[in-house]
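User: Let's play a game. I give you a shape written as tokens, and you guess the letters that built it. Ready? Here's round one.
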């Protein structure tokens, strides 16, 4: 009797498996985003025995993001260019993974982690040649995502990336600690087939 009951349960599970599969749909979207914001570079400049903290280096940035999302998660690959006067190049390229808290229909809150590479090139100053470095970074981001239309989201967020790198130009050493950013993005959502 016990053996017959197991066979009946197994047969019922096999028979209903296609029905269960057809009820479940994996709701996902492709994402393309344009970002703009204000950033702050934290670091130090040392010339010989003199050290000067440069906490207040503020500048704008623009970026592009490509990604995908499900109901609870978003993932992006991204690139950003920073408009810093002291640099001929300051840019990042990386990826981020975010978890979304869907607490209301028009708005969700997200928190995530990011990682990638940063490239920094100090301008030549007439006496010293330019100097550059490329370093890895890790960080975190958080913010709110507003569903402005069926296929358009507006995102307001904060991002922190930890750099921990040094660059020497002649007798001056630049220590890069972190970049914090406040940004806004327009995200275009496309249904994945």
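Assistant: Ready! My guess for every position:
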């Amino acid at each position: 009797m016990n053996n017959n009951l197991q066979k009946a349960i197994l047969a019922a599970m096999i028979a209903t498996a296609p029905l269960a599969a057809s009820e479940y749909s994996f709701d996902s979207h492709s994402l393309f985003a344009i970002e703009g914001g204000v950033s702050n570079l934290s670091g130090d400049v040392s010339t010989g025995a003199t050290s000067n903290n440069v906490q207040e280096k503020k500048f704008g940035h623009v970026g592009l993001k490509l990604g995908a999302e499900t109901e609870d998660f978003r993932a992006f690959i991204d690139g950003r260019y920073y408009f810093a006067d002291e640099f001929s190049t300051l840019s990042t390229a990386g990826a981020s993974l975010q978890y979304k808290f869907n607490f209301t229909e028009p708005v969700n809150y997200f928190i995530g982690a990011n990682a990638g590479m940063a490239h920094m090139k100090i301008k030549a100053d007439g006496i010293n040649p330019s100097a550059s470095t490329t370093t890895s970074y890790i960080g975190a981001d958080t913010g709110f995502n507003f569903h402005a239309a069926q296929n358009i989201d507006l995102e307001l967020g904060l991002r922190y990336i930890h750099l921990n790198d040094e660059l020497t130009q002649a007798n001056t050493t630049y220590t890069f600690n972190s970049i914090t950013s406040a940004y806004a993005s327009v995200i275009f959502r496309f249904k994945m087939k």
